[in-house]
Amino acid sequence: MSRRIVVLGAGHAGAEVVAALRAGGFTGDLVLVGDETAVPYQRPPLSKAFLQGTATAADLPIRPRSFYDQQHVDLALDRRADSIDTHARTVRVGARSHEYDVLVLALGGRVRALSDPVAAGATNLHHVKTCADVERLRERLRPGTRLGVVGGGFVGLEVAASARDHGAAVSVLELGPRLLGRVCSEVVATHVASVHRRRGVEVRTAATGLRLEADQDGRISRLVTDQGDVEVDEVVVGIGMVPETELASRAGLATNDGVLVDVDYRASAPEVFAIGDCARVVRAGGSTRRLESAPHAAASARRAAAAILGRPAPTDGAPWFWSHQFDVKIQMAGDPDTRPSRWVTRGSVSDGSFLVFGIVEDRIVRVEAVDRPAEFTQTKPWLGRPIPALIDRLTDESVSLRQLLTRH
C-alpha cells in the first residue's frame, strides 16, 4: 500500500494505531504528530506510580523510540496541528503542510478547568494530564503539605492516595453526593471512601458552593465550601476532561462532545477517523457513547486500523477500567451508561475483597471488583449473556465462579 496516513495526537490511541497499521501490513508513509517532546507514554501511572516516585519517566513510554525508527514512523513531536482541509486532504502543522490519504484524529482532550477566576492565575493549582504536570506537583509534596483535591473521581482519588504516601495532609472535595458517582456502584464508592478515611484523607461529599481564596501572591490559600473551609498549600483539580474537538469542528467535521464517528471510528469526512477519548461513537438506534480509558484507546485504534486496511473488525470486548489507590486494586467492566436494576455482592465488603454485579433482567451488565483480579477476569466474558439460573448463586462462595460459569 502506497497511501500516506497522518495521525494527529501522540497519546495512547495514536501510538496504538500506528503500531496496528504496521502490524497489519501498511507499508506507506506514516506520520505521527504530537504536542509533547516525549515519545508516546502511558498516562494511567501518572497519578499513581509516577506521582509516588516508584516509576520514572524512563518507565512510561508505551514503546521505545527505536520502535518508531524501525517501523519507519515519522515522528513530528513538539508540534501542534493548526488546521485541516478535508477537501485538499492536508494538515497544517506550523510552517509545514502534510498531505494525507487517510487522517486519524487521536487528540484526546484537555482538562476541565474550574470557572473561578482565581484559578486562572494561581501558581499552586495543578492538573494531572502530562508528565510535566505531575513532576511539578511531585516537587511540591512534602510531609505536612496541605493538599486540596477538587474532584472525587479516579484521578482525584489516585492523587489523594499518592500524596498521602508522600506524607501530605489531604482533603478531597466532591460536589456530588458520593465519590465515583459517574463510574461505579454505591457499594464500591462507599468502600473507597472508607479506605481513604482510614488512611487519613479527609473526604467531603456534597461540597457545594466551592470558591477559591488567594493570598497577595496569587496562591490559593483556602477552599471555601458550604461545608466549611479548607486551608491549603497546593490544589489539584480533577473534574474530568473536555474532548478536543476544535480542530475537527473548524474542518467541518460533525462533533457533539466528541468527534462523531461510526462503529469503525469513521468521521463525517471521507478517509478521516477519530479514536480514543475524543471519539463519540454513534450506535444503532442513534444513541452515542464516548469512553475515556487506556483500554478503549487501544481497542478503538485497532478497530480503526482494521477499517483503514480493509480487514475484518476485531471483536470488541466490554469497556473496562481500573484504578490503584493505596494498596487496593479496583476494576470494573461494562458500559458505564447502563443503569443496573439491582446489584448483587459476592464476598465481604468489610474484609475489603469482593465483587459487585450489576444486573438487568437475567444478565450481568456491570462487574466491579475490589482486590479480586482473578474473578474479575473470569467474569468479564459473561457480560451481556443471559444466565437467569445463576444470578442468585453469584453470592455463594462455596462454589467458585469458574465452576459456576463453566456449568452454565
Question: What's this, in brief?
Answer:
The protein is of the alpha/beta class.
- Average per-residue pLDDT, rounded, comes to 95
Query: What is the count of distinct domains?
Result: 3
Query: Any idea of the CATH class of the largest domain?
Result: Alpha Beta
Outline the biggest β-sheet. 5 strands, parallel
- Widest sheet: strand ordering: 3-2-1-7-19
Percent range of helical residues: 10-25%
Gyration radius (Cα, Å) is 22 Å
**Helix and strand composition category:** alpha/beta
- Morphology: globular
Total helices: the number is 11
Number of E-state strands = 26
- Write out the CATH superfamily name of the largest domain: FAD/NAD(P)-binding domain
- Alpha-carbon distance between the two ends: 47 Å
CATH-defined topology of the largest domain: FAD/NAD(P)-binding domain
Low-confidence stretches: none
Organism: Nocardioides plantarum
Pfam family, one: Pyr_redox_2
Keywords: FAD, Flavoprotein, Oxidoreductase
Domain FAD/NAD(P)-binding: 4-301
Structure in words:
The protein has about 400 residues and is α/β, with parallel strands linked by helices. It has helices at about 10-25, 50, 65-70, 115-120, 130-140, 155-165, 185-200, 245-250, 295-310, 375-380, 400-405, and strands spanning about 5-10, 30-35, 75, 80-85, 90-95, 95-100, 100-105, 110, 125, 145-150, 170-175, 200-205, 210-215, 220-225, 230, 235, 240-245, 260, 270-275, 280, 290, 320-325, 330-335, 340-350, 355-360, 365-370. The protein folds into three domains: about 5-110 and about 240-310, 3-Layer(bba) Sandwich (FAD/NAD(P)-binding domain); about 115-235, FAD/NAD(P)-binding domain; about 340-405, 2-Layer Sandwich (Enolase-like, domain 1). Helices cover about 25% and strands about 30% of the residues. Helix 1 runs parallel beside helix 9. Keywords: FAD, Flavoprotein, Oxidoreductase. This is NAD(P)/FAD-dependent oxidoreductase. Pfam families: Pyr_redox_2, Reductase_C. Its cofactor is FAD.
